[in-house]
Design goal:
Elements (H helix, E strand, L loop, with lengths): L1 E4 L2 E4 L2 E4 L2 E4 L6 E2 L10 E3 L1 E4 L12 E3 L2 E3 L12 E8 L2 E3 L7 E8 L2 E3 L7 E8 L2 E3 L7 E8 L2 E3 L7 E8 L1 E7 L4 E6 L3 E8 L7 E2 L2 H14 L7
């Protein structure tokens, strides 16, 4: 696997450090034999294709050098799972449980997910490209070198999370909550629309465009208790 950096970008005379993206190169994979995921299971070099994993219990499992394609993950229990050097494509499901899980060097492509629980998770060198995720719960999570690209995020919850070198590229961010979050080198300029309902006071480590700042001005004024009258 080869990793590359996107580099740093100037923003109003300052430099925003770009996220390091993963480039996952999978080895020859074996097809998964099927059955049920197992708690603390070890899955290495496998291809999960069009599998119905809904309701499976894979708490604490490890997935390394895996391809997961077109699988259903409704209510799948994967808390404290570790997903390493893997590509996840076309996942679909509601209520997937991934609390306190770890994603490192992972590409998540064209997901269709709702209510995914990633609170307390660790995401490092992760790209989420395309698709739509509703009500993504990343409360208290740690995101380092994460890119949200060409995707739609509806009411994502970053409350209490730590974000460092996180980029939003051609991404719709609607109803986001950054309450209590800590941000460093977070580039929001590629988010359109950019809608933040809570935590504007936590954006000191982020960069926005002048147009975005104007769009956020009414919410910012309300949050700071500023009255705007003609």
């Amino acid at each position: 696997m080869v990793r590359r950096a996107t580099g740093s970008r100037p923003a109003g005379g300052q430099t925003v450090k770009g996220a390091r993206r993963p480039e996952v190169r999978l080895p020859a994979l074996l097809p998964w034999a099927g059955g049920e995921l197992e708690p603390d299971g070890d899955y290495d070099g496998l291809e999960f294709r069009e599998a119905d994993l809904a309701g499976h219990d894979g708490v604490g499992a490890r997935f390394m050098d895996c391809a997961v394609t077109g699988c259903a993950v409704d209510g799948t229990a994967l808390g404290r799972a570790r997903v390493l050097d893997s590509v996840l494509t076309g996942l679909r499901g509601v209520g997937t449980q991934l609390a306190e899980s770890t994603f490192r060097d992972v590409e998540l492509v064209e997901p269709r997910l709702g209510g995914t629980q990633l609170h307390g998770a660790v995401l490092e060198r992760v790209v989420i490209r395309g698709g739509k995720i509703d009500f993504l719960n990343l409360r208290e999570a740690r995101l380092t070198d994460v890119v949200f690209e060409s995707c739609v995020l509806i009411e994502p919850d970053f409350a209490g999370a730590r974000l460092e070198r996180v980029e939003f590229v051609d991404c719709a961010l609607k109803g986001a909550d950054f309450g209590g979050a800590a941000l460093k080198d977070v580039d929001l300029r590629g988010a359109a629309p950019l809608e933040i309902v809570r935590g504007l006071d936590r954006l000191s480590g982020a960069v926005v465009s002048p147009a975005q700042l104007l769009d956020l001005a009414p919410v910012l004024a309300a949050e700071l208790g500023i009255r705007v009258e003609g």
